[in-house]
């Protein structure tokens, strides 16, 4: 039997960033268990790779700012070349939504994020494909950008491994044994691991892992979202920012000489590799026709879907379980888990090591008691 003080379930952004921070804080003995044969098979490798700092929830926004700052200023020992393309972002909105977006932008500014409110005309000058789109205004954030998600995930795991973490791939956690109200052992499809602390970072499966441990029933829902990539398009400027039409739930950014597009669909799914649904391609075509008419004739060459897992109030779930001692949640990262990963891992690691931390209360699982 293997024995390790800390066992992390899941090698996505939640688990990898927690391992990274535990390592930075001096923890040498930890095991990460991942059911797939490599990291990043699920949400962490299937997302849109956009770091967005203007978000409505103040606690998540602060985490996003911290995460983006980290990616723009990687530590000297980071194992891969720069991973962040600072192309900026444009968030578009109309009507009452525009007033709300301006307030979110002001909040971001108060937190130190550089933002500007632009007229629709100025936004159209910056991103020509918006020419015939209708919106009241745009929020420009110059420090947002696009991330090499595999290099970010791999960097966290490599630095944790250098400190002593072991990543065990290709085995699924099937039992969390609890003795006298405290976690004692994790059983995988290949071995048993004696553990003092079990960190539940299993993405869409966090609810199922919680059940295995008899932990609090945290309300978590995996929602599927599709992404589409067009064929190369001569008129796409690769230096465009990512553009998110908040009023109409449609976003796009340059990708591989064409565009990556998303109609912001969200259908509840069971944990797993979500199947793609052809009706979402129709939804995308309809949204493009109505809200991005200049791009109406684009041909799609590739599409995929992934799961974004949300708690009932939309906030992350980070903290000790109220029912089972030694069981720790890093769950419900929704649509912000890549951007906020550095801050999420930092908060989790500090709480695991018994330190105080900002936002401990906002993200605590105790709110679902
Ligand atoms: C289409 C889409 C677009 C997105 N766009 C963005 C974006 O632009 N910016 C952004 O910040 N975020 C974005 N996100 C959100 C982001 O990808 C997620 O919040 C983040 O990846 C969640 O990370 P995680 O580690 O919690 O989950 P995951 O990446 O799913 O990792 C969980 C891991 O746990 C493993 N696991 C599960 N059960 C077990 C078990 N029993 N035993 C062992 N291992 C197990 C899984 O195999 C998996 O590798 C997007 C998500 C999607 C789907």
Topology of helices and strands:
Elements: E1 2-9, H1 13-24, E2 30-34, E3 50-51, H2 58-72, E4 84-85, E5 89-93, H3 95-110, E6 115-119, H4 120-126, E7 137-141, E8 145-147, H5 149-163, E9 166-169, E10 173-179, E11 182-188, E12 192-200, H6 206-213, E13 220-230, E14 242-245, E15 250-255, E16 258-262, E17 267-268, H7 278-291, E18 300-311, E19 317-320, E20 327-331, H8 341-352
Parallel strand pairs: 1-2, 1-12, 2-9, 5-14, 12-20
Antiparallel strand pairs: 3-8, 4-8, 5-7, 6-7, 10-11, 11-12, 13-16, 13-17, 13-18, 14-15, 15-16, 19-20
Helix pairs in contact: 1-5, 1-8, 2-8
The chain binds flavin-adenine dinucleotide.
Integer average pLDDT: 97
Runs with pLDDT <50, length 5+? none
β-strand amount: 25-35%
What's the tally of helices?
8
Name the bound molecules.
flavin-adenine dinucleotide
Strand and helix order: EHEEHEEHEHEEHEEEEHEEEEEHEEEH
Task: Identify the CATH architecture of the largest domain.
Answer: 3-Layer(bba) Sandwich
What is the CA–CA distance across the termini? 34 Å
Broad structural category: alpha+beta
CATH superfamily of the largest domain: FAD/NAD(P)-binding domain
Number of strand elements: 20
